[in-house]
Each structure stands twice: as C-alpha cells, then as structure tokens.
Amino acid sequence: MSRASGKHRGAASVEFFDVDDQSYLDWVQSHPEGYIANVDRMVKVPDYPMIHRATHGLLSSAKIGNFTAGDYVKYCSTDLDALRAWVEFVCGRVATRCGQCM
C-alpha cells in the first residue's frame, strides 16, 4: 500500500490514512458518526480487515498512538456500505464487524 492519505478515486466517500496519524485523528474527531476499517498491511490477520465505529476508543486513544504508521492502515467513511465494499475490493476479503462496537 502506498504511504499517502486522502480520498480514493472511484470511492469518494472513503478516505485512506497511512503514516498520517494527525489527519486520521482529525477525521475521527470530526466524524463521530463514521466508521473505520482497520486493515493489516499484509492482509494476513484472520479477522481483518475489521470495521469499527469511529467512537471506538481503542482506535483513537492518545495512550495507544501509532494508528497509521505501524502494522495497520485505516480506511474511513460515514457510509458503512461504501466502506465495506471498498475494503472488500482493496483487500479481497469481506470485513469483519467489531464485536464490541458494532
């Protein structure tokens, strides 16, 4: 995956965050009704990609940090169906819903 952030062509309602924690956290703060797909870079973790509500604290807690620069990148949207479809297209897998927040 490229090291960039921004809206994906062909999926205007889905934003991608990679090595850009500040932009990601800004998006989470300004879209509390949104959804986040947490995607492992290698697309090998069995339960991933996983979709969470933007209000799920583990995905934006200051205590954790390193949200988009480590082993995971984020796709975000206020449209759950668009996010699920885009993640399936990009990763070749159906996203799992978080058992805690979804």
Note the topology.
Layout: E1 6-8, E2 11-17, H1 21-30, E3 35-40, E4 50-53, E5 72-77, H2 80-91, E6 96-97
Parallel strand pairs: 4-6
Antiparallel strand pairs: 1-2, 2-5, 3-4, 3-5
Provide the spatial order of strands within the biggest beta sheet: 1-2-5-3-4-6
Secondary structure category: alpha+beta
Basic shape: globular
* Low-pLDDT stretches: 1-5
Q: What is the beta-strand fraction?
A: 25-35%
Could you say how many structural domains there are in total? 1
Number of strand elements: 6
SSE pattern, N- to C-terminal: EEHEEEHE
Q: What is the count of DSSP helices, taking H or I runs of 4+ residues?
A: 2
User: What is the makeup of the main sheet?
Assistant: 6 strands, mixed
Helical coverage, percent range = 10-25%
List keywords for this structure.
single chain; 102 residues; alpha+beta; 6-stranded mixed β-sheet; 22% helix; 27% strand
Report on this model:
A hairpin with a 2-residue loop joins strand 1 (6-8) and strand 2 (11-17). The radius of gyration is 12 Å and the shape is globular. The chain contains 2 helices and 6 strands. It has a 6-stranded mixed β-sheet, sandwiched between helices. With 102 residues, the chain is of the alpha+beta class. It has one domain (6-97).
Offer a concise description of the structure.
The chain is α+β, with helices and mostly antiparallel strands and 102 residues long.
